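Need the bound structure for AHM, inputs here:
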Amino acid sequence: MSKIITIERFILENQPINARGEFTNLLYDIALAAKIIAHKTNRAGLTDILGRAGAVNIQGEQQQKLDVFADEVIFRVCDHTGRLCVMASEENEALLHIPNEYEKGSYVLVYDPLDGSSNIDVNVSIGTIFGIYRCKDWSQRGRLEDVLQPGRDLVGSGYVLYGSSTMLVYSTGQGVHGFTLDPELGEFLLSHKQMKLPNPPAYFSINHAYYPRWSPAVQKYVQWLQSGNEGKTPLSSRYIGSLVADFHRNLLRGGVFCYPSEVNQPRGKIRLVYEAAPLAFLIEQAGGYASDGFGSILNIEPTELHQRVPLFIGNRRLVEKAEYFIQMENK
Ligand code: AHM
Ligand code: MG
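Answer from helper R.:
Posting the output first, comments after.
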């Protein structure tokens, strides 16, 4: 039997010797929130059946949408621990401040509680994405500038995939590690140590229905991905429409996920702060690269909390080729 390592033990064993445990405990908190969300997600269809007669559950509470539920779970698990100075989520227009009755800490948490919302009601994989920064000014309770930091300054990031099993994948800058939830034990167990993008890559992921709305450069790039040009194996296409699920598959099999700018959506769709930047941090740790077509996602200084960004993320060579086509067009 191989070694059985829980996420708690792994995080603890990998924290720096002089660490105070604040960051380590924040990762535990996120793992706890993930378990609560996974439990609810697995019962999504049943909740619907139980809630159908009046949409009120057994406790007399109104049935909640899963993404709103996930948003509240993460906030409630993390708001009172004294580890965070502020949070921000895709579900909330404004910053999420730590309530005044609780102590504030030195970290910032940004998250997309349940990404891939169009897939929730059709039983297709969805995910949570998170990123952790250091608070910029310890004397303050958390301000917008704490959240608007470039991805390069992340101290950790990760995602949870609610798929055929639930997985938590994270990095603190020392490689990417994946844990699978054992639902009987209620524990995340180390299943994928030091994940690296394989070569040659197998897949590209893009919503092909938008082909007419892409620039000629992106159209040419997608043709290149499908071709056997330059000694490259032609890539096969896979697109779930859930960023976490598409990213995870490409991380395991090699490939590139693209959500480019479009004629009617020049900044693309994916959000920079809590979707693109945390995944960009992970992909670099796995030996890959993420770009907006002009340069690294990790170097972009956000100016708005919910700003969007074109995204090409995966094996470095594939992403750099997107930059090549786009930059040739913009010369
Ligand atoms: P959401 O944050 O509203 O869930 O939207 C983000 C999702 C991503 O998970 C996915 O990659 C993308 O939207 C799919 O968009 P489209 O349906 O336009 O291809
Ligand atoms: Mg999202």
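Comments: Residues 214 and 262 are 5 Å apart (CA to CA). The radius of gyration is 20 Å.
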